[in-house]
From TrEMBL, chain A:
GO terms for cellular component: ubiquitin ligase complex. SMART domains: RING. Pfam families: zf-RING_2. This is RING finger protein 11. GO terms for molecular function: ubiquitin protein ligase activity; zinc ion binding. Residues 1-12 have a biased composition (Polar residues). Keywords: Metal-binding, Zinc, Zinc-finger. Residues 88-128 form the RING-type domain. It comes from Mizuhopecten yessoensis. The lineage of its organism: Eukaryota, Metazoa, Spiralia, Lophotrochozoa, Mollusca. SUPFAM superfamilies: RING/U-box. Residues 1-39 are annotated as: Disordered.
From TrEMBL, chain B:
It is an enzyme of class 2 (transferase). This is E2 ubiquitin-conjugating enzyme. Accepts ubiquitin from the E1 complex and catalyzes its covalent attachment to other proteins. In vitro catalyzes 'Lys-48'-, as well as 'Lys-63'-linked polyubiquitination. May be involved in degradation of muscle-specific proteins. Mediates polyubiquitination of CYP3A4. Transmembrane segments: none annotated. The lineage of its organism: Eukaryota, Metazoa, Spiralia, Lophotrochozoa, Mollusca. It holds the Pfam family UQ_con.
Length: 143, 164
């Protein structure tokens, strides 16, 4: 209650990367930072970001389960067909031929990198707010 | 990355989806992660006539993570901390934490934009939420001493006009 302004204002991700906000502008003009070149950073809960090798066992299990669920969601490559939507509403860029896409059970489509990052934070479709795990479970039941 | 400031980025977005009630720019031309916005106090509220300055600080992970919003102009509102920090659900990260009573749909989603954030803030000004006040004294005054509450806001409105 009323503790909003006590939220830590520093972002521990930036501490981990050894960056400060000063270099933000130059990065922003290019593509998002290439996470895959570093030890992956995970978000076991809000405002908590850890390098993969610093996670507790419990957090590792939680993340492994989430990664497992995400891997069940269909992926594909943008082939220009408009049925799949034309734009990724997360990065606001139009799909380009050959880009990796991920399809959610609610039929919303995003760049694979954009939505996978989000699903690690919240297992909800950002467009319709449909919980993705519930949809997955009901798919399993009907099969 | 969608946080690209080119000349008239905001103008372009606003023309596509006309929204009244605010204007936006960069705090410093070299840093697109810090925006300065001006919010016009909504009509038929005690904030009417005010020009309230606020900063939006975007994390590098935007839009995966929400920005923080801080009023630079003095404000008096249950959901704005005395340090100016705006406390509304859509600026809260998703997940299981102390804001557990909020649903995923109420919290930050990566489809939010500067416009949707500012629209939420404008509606917050018109319609305070005293379930989780960031300013407990303002929340108490809003409930118990509405006349005094309005008087405090009128002071903020005057100050914001003087600062223009
Ligand atoms: Zn995308
Ligand atoms: Zn959806």
């Amino acid at each position: 209650m009323g503790n909003c302004f006590k939220t830590p204002s520093t972002d521990d991700i930036s501490l981990l990367r050894g960056h400060d906000n000063q270099d933000g502008a130059e990065q922003a003009l290019g593509p998002p930072p290439p996470y895959q070149e570093r030890v992956p950073v995970y978000h076991p809960s809000p405002n908590v970001s850890r390098l993969a090798n610093q996670l507790s066992e419990e957090e590792q299990i939680k993340i492994a389960k989430r990664l497992g669920l995400i891997s069940h969601l269909p992926v594909g490559v943008y082939d220009g067909s408009s049925k799949k939507g034309k734009e990724c509403v997360i990065c606001m860029n139009e799909f380009i031929l050959g880009e990796s896409l991920r399809f959610l059970p609610c039929m919303h489509t995003y760049h694979r990198d954009c939505i996978d990052d989000w699903l690690m934070r919240s297992f909800t479709c950002p467009s319709c707010m449909e919980p993705v795990d519930a949809a997955l479970l009901s798919t399993y039941e009907t099969n | 990355m969608r946080l690209i400031w080119s000349s008239g980025y905001v103008e372009l977005k606003l023309n596509k989806n006309p929204v009244e009630g605010f204007s936006a720019g960069l705090v410093d031309d070299d840093d697109i992660f810090k925006w300065e916005v001006m919010i016009y106090g909504p009509q038929d509220t005690p904030y009417e006539g005010g020009y309230f300055k606020a900063h939006l600080n975007f994390p590098k992970e935007y839009p995966q993570k929400p920005p923080k919003m801080i009023f630079m102009s003095p404000m008096w509102h249950p959901n704005i901390g005395e340090d100016g920090n705006v406390c509304i659900s859509i600026l809260h990260e998703p997940g299981d934490d102390k804001y557990g009573y909020e649903t995923a749909a109420e919290r930050w989603l990566p489809v939010h934009t500067v416009e949707t954030i500012l629209l939420s803030v404008i509606s917050m000004l018109a319609d305070p939420n005293d379930e989780s006040p960031a300013n407990v004294d303002a929340a108490k005054m809003w409930r118990e001493e509405p006349a005094e509450f309005r008087r405090r806001i009128t002071q903020c409105v005057r100050k914001s006009q003087d600062d223009l």
